[in-house]
Amino acid sequence: QRRVRGLPYCFVYLQTWHHDTHNAMGIMKVDMCRETSIGWEKTNKFPTEPVFAGRPDGESEDDGVLMAPVFDADTEKTDLYVWDAKSLEVIAIVSTPVTVPFTLHGTWIPE
Predict the structure, then answer these.
(1) Among 62, 80, 94, 99, which residue's beta carbon has the most beta carbons within 10 A?
(2) Within a 13 Å sphere around the CA of 50, how many CA atoms are in the beta-carbon half?
(3) What global pTM score does this model have?
(4) For residue 54, which of 8, 91, 3 has the smallest C-alpha distance?
């Protein structure tokens, strides 16, 4: 969030990979101040790196949503997932007309 950019922070959001046990990648929220973490993962789902979008009038550092394309290995399609940034509960899944490979990350393609 712009209002906290450059200031001390607690939360980090990352992509995880569990290929040996779950055949999945996931999203993790790490609270570095409390030394705790929570995660989201589903078998055969492969999210790219999540992007945080803060609520404009948010009162806490994690008040907002995470967004990432998620490749589904069962259907070979990609949907845009939206998670609540506090709980990592999925709050929306948006169908997309394209397939984004799960190895693609941190890239902006304008067209």
Answers:
(1) 62
(2) 27
(3) 0.84
(4) 3
